[in-house]
Amino acid sequence: MIATITVNPSVDRLYKINILQPNKLNRVKILKHMVGGKGFNAARVASLLGKDTYAFGFVGGNNGDFIRNEAKQDTYKTCFIDTGIETRNCIQIIDKNENKTEINEEGLPIPYIFYEQLEENVKHILEKENINSISLNGSLPQGINYEFYLKLMKIIKKENPNCKIILDTAGSIIKEILDSDIMPDIIKPNEHEIADYLNISVTTDPQKLMEEIRINKNLSRIPIIFVSLGAKGCLVKAHENYYYALHKPVKAINTEGSGDAMVGGILASFDENSNNIEKVIRYGCAAGTANAMNLKTGYLDPQIFNKVKQNIQIKQIN
After folding, report:
1. For helices 206-214 and 191-198, what crossing angle results, to 10°?
2. pLDDT (tens digit, 9 = 90+) per residue, 64-98?
3. Dihedral (Cα; 34, 42, 3, 267), 10-degree rounding
4. CA distance 185 to 165
5. Choosing a second label site near 68 at 20 to 30 A (CA), which of 23, 203, 294, 317?
6. What is the pLDDT of residues 268-311, one digit of tens each?
7. 226 contact partners, CB below 8 Å, separation of at least 6
């Protein structure tokens, strides 16, 4: 059984415009109005792959009502906490040249009593169910810092030392956590996030990234690292070994949420008690690719997933 935790979800709106003009009235066409939240996307993908999945998260206000109603169409079990605080909005604007502008609200402060309630809910599910893996997903609202994720990791490991923890976040949060004494089992940065962490230029060269990760004292402590490289594949550190995975080019329809789908695929592989790293890589990469081949965000067709999974080429590079 799987769980995902998303404390700063959003309602996402995708707008299309001819030319974005600052300081002027811009009339846009709305293309999508959808649930945002990395953990919700990962939970949806894992459940589509047939895994019993719990999705924990905060919701509130009209946007929270929208998320709850949309979740009724999904197959994961919802463990939402209604904070009464309006869930944030995230807006993407795409012009005729496919240039994308993003406007993401930070997320309003949430009283700490709700964080404590979430901690108790996580403890309860770990006592009640055999949870093989949990992902901690995305950014945090205003008024809370990385220490909340550290606290959750302590709770998870105390209740179930064998439960795998995937941390899928970026920026200052990941930097602070990796400077601490508590390490997740898996992280999943993309090429931009890993470059930011390593303070290097963005690259999709797996050999260069492998060398940079090897000499970084914090990254070398993490058992498994998936670096998603978009159409260029994925670099995976698995303990002392490094792998490069690639799928032949596919017709991408919507790449949004592919990283979240990768997390869902990784969670699904661990739910099968897989200690075969190549299977874990196949599940993660196939889920990310299958998402890109679907119009919906954080979604896949299981039949396409199974076809893609067979065509993932994996080679050890160290």
Report:
1. 40
2. 999 999 999 999 999 999 999 999 999 999 999 98
3. 170
4. 5
5. 294
6. 999 887 679 999 999 999 999 999 998 888 899 999 999 999 99
7. 186, 187, 188, 234, 235, 236, 262, 266, 281, 284
